[in-house]
Amino acid sequence: MRSPLFRTILLAAALAVAGSAVAGGLYSGEAPVTSQSEPERNEALKTALAQVITKVSGDNTILTRPEVSKAIAAPSRFVQQYSYRQDVANENGQPQVRLTLVAQFDRDAIDQLIGGAAKTGADATAATDTRVQSYRVWVSGVASADDYARLVGTLSHNELVRVVQAEQARGDGVELRIDTVGPLQRVLDSLGNGPIRVSNAKPPVEGVDALLDMHP
What is the pTM of this model? Predict the structure, then answer.
């Protein structure tokens, strides 16, 4: 019989899946501009796209590859939307308005570009790093619906996590399936000293890829 906690988790999981799909930060870039003119916008989009490609691939040299350079030269086909942000800075006691272009790029198109560049390059590490993969993790210390909401919220806001789904619950533990951009170790490394801590990154437990703990 499923516990009351697990029934609560199933309801929250539906919201978590929707929330995790908006992992837009990884595919969002920005660049300073002095106006909203078309020439400046085009150059800023190039800068923002290069920023995203480097961030997603984790490879600082990928921008030198011919297919990537060609893509950056024509960024409009990767752009989903863009906007301008105004910030006020204090310079020499005088307020100065600074304008920044913020662009959201197409996730699938970026992944495809990086994967193709890796396959034609010297190694295929980047292709592996950007492939969406599924893992199962067991999280202890989940004693209430509030704990679960905190757990899912933390994972859903991680830029490397695409989907969070509850599989089962037992005692104060929850098994989750998480879909990540690249290997699980990248996500575990990104958790740091937050509310979710890694207790065992390679547990000798069949079907479980990592053991985690919730902390206050």
Answer: 0.51
Instruction: Supply the DSSP string of the chain, one letter for each residue.
Output: ---HHHHHHHHHHHHHHHHHTT-GGGGEEEEEESS--HHHHHHHHHHHHHHHHHHHH--TTGGGSHHHHHHHHSGGGGEEEEEEEEEEEEETTEEEEEEEEEEEE-HHHHHHHHHHHHHHSS--HHHHHTSEEEEEEEEE---SHHHHHHHHHHHHTSTTEEEEEEEEEETTEEEEEEEEES-HHHHHHHHTTSSEEEEESS-S-TT--EEEEE--
pLDDT bracket for residue 121 (50, 70, 90) = low
Mean pLDDT of the chain: 82
Using CA of residue 104, residue 107, residue 112, residue 115, what is the dihedral sign?
positive
